[in-house]
Amino acid sequence: MSKLIKVLVVEDDDDINNMLCDLLEQNGYKPIPVFSGTEAITCFKSDPANLVLLDLMLPGKSGELVLSDIRSMSQVPVIVITAIASKESIVSILKLGANDYIAKPFDNDELLARIEVQLRQQGNALAENVTHENILTYKELVLNTEQYDAMIGNQSINLSKREFEILMLLMKNPKKVFTKNNLFESIWKQEFICDDNTINVHISNIRSKIGKLRPLDKYIQTVWGIGYKMQE
Length: 232
Prior knowledge:
CATH architecture of the largest domain: 3-Layer(aba) Sandwich
Strand order of the largest sheet: 2-1-3-4-5
CATH class of the largest domain: Alpha Beta
Number of strands: 12
């Protein structure tokens, strides 16, 4: 998993696409450039982005059709970039499911601000959706158990598979104290052979990776003499 937020850049003009990708990279995002509507859908299906910047005038498949296809798969934020800024066109794209739009030519700072707003709203929506079968939340921590994605706010946490599964088990049972035996047998599916170091190293790694993003917050509590649980 990348630590960077992925932004699918759907724009057929090479210069604009390159400019957008450079702008995103300079501001800590991971741009994924595509140059046609057909390519956009293929790319999104294989590697879903965290946000989409979508031009409307595209070869292969129009921006409107791309937006419709993306909405059939995901509620990922979509910001339409359009040279057609009439009231009718704006109303139409918003009704199709766009989250926002910006007219060409656009100000780079305004575009970045709109991206930040959409990602912040996406993070809040995930945090509130605690009943979704694939989403686990605890304080600011959000796990997508289907995609094995871990995030705090809008920042990805680069967890290994074992680290993710340990954190997922703790978050599913936030008030339960898990012994090292419990954790090992649940995650590794093997008999615990008194190898405390395996669990200690994984817990330490999880704490370290979360701590880099939230150094003042504690998410895993050590219950001395017993094991671990989520920090209250």
